[in-house]
């Protein structure tokens, strides 16, 4: 047990030393302030790490992740992150990122299998599946149907973030932040644009 943690700490020391060897002032700059361009709202899945898959360094992306990147309009955790990112950090781009093969989306479609608290958390996805039942029923393959539901979940989350007073206030001041919906393929490592970007102009 202790060896696993010790190995992690050793990797961290190696990483820190490597960064400092390449750029001696790197951590001094970051310690003063963070000015990320992006807020990322994504899934907690360990295969979808925001910084790694988007090629962004520490300091470049502010991150909120939860199971299946669900946006509950009363989630104080998400709303606090959103408000801080928009009003204080003044991020210019907000990315809602879902992914194919999402376990949370799968759980939301397994009606007869209990998942404990997750069943409460995933309720918006079940409702979404019912709302789009006609479209989804035309997709024969169950994995492809779930992947389409994962896309719909991103579109829904984008719409929900756009409706928050935080975004409406920001858009009252101008065009930014831009709000984007992406989906990530865990089989090919590619981020796809769902072409649902909203700016202040679009929202007015
Ligand atoms: Zn997921």
UniProtKB/TrEMBL annotation:
Reaction(s) this enzyme catalyzes, per UniProt: hydrogencarbonate + H(+) = CO2 + H2O
PROSITE patterns: PROK_CO2_ANHYDRASE_1, PROK_CO2_ANHYDRASE_2
CDD domains referenced in this protein's UniProt entry, alphabetically: beta_CA_cladeA
Enzyme Commission number(s) of this protein: 4.2.1.1
Keyword Zinc among record annotations: yes
Cofactor: Zn(2+)
Alphabetical list of InterPro entries matching this protein: Carbonic_anhydrase (IPR001765), Carbonic_anhydrase_CS (IPR015892), Carbonic_anhydrase_sf (IPR036874)
UniProtKB keywords: Lyase, Metal-binding, Zinc
Family of the protein in this entry: Belongs to the beta-class carbonic anhydrase family.
PANTHER family from the UniProt entry: CARBONIC ANHYDRASE (PTHR11002)
Function description: Reversible hydration of carbon dioxide.
Record's protein name: Carbonic anhydrase
Lineage: Bacteria, Pseudomonadati, Pseudomonadota, Alphaproteobacteria, Rhodobacterales
């Amino acid at each position: 047990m202790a060896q696993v943690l010790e190995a992690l700490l050793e990797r961290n020391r190696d990483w820190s030393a490597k960064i400092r060897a390449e750029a001696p002032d790197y951590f001094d700059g970051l310690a003063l302030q963070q000015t990320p361009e992006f807020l990322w709202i994504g899934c907690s899945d360990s295969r979808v790490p925001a910084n790694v898959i988007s090629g962004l360094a520490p300091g470049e992306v502010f991150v909120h992740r939860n199971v299946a990147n669900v946006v509950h309009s009363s989630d104080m955790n998400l709303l606090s992150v959103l408000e801080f990112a928009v009003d204080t950090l003044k991020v210019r781009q907000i990315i809602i990122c879902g992914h194919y093969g999402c376990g949370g989306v799968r759980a939301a479609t397994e009606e007869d299998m209990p998942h404990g608290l997750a069943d409460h958390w995933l309720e918006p996805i079940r409702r979404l599946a019912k709302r789009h039942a006609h479209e989804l029923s035309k997709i024969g393959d169950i994995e492809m149907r779930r992947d389409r539901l994962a896309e719909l979940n991103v579109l829904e989350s984008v719409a929900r973030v756009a409706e928050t007073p935080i975004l409406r206030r920001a858009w009252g001041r101008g065009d930014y932040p831009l709000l984007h919906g992406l989906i990530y393929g865990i089989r090919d490592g590619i981020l796809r644009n769902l072409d649902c970007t909203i700016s202040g102009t679009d929202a007015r």
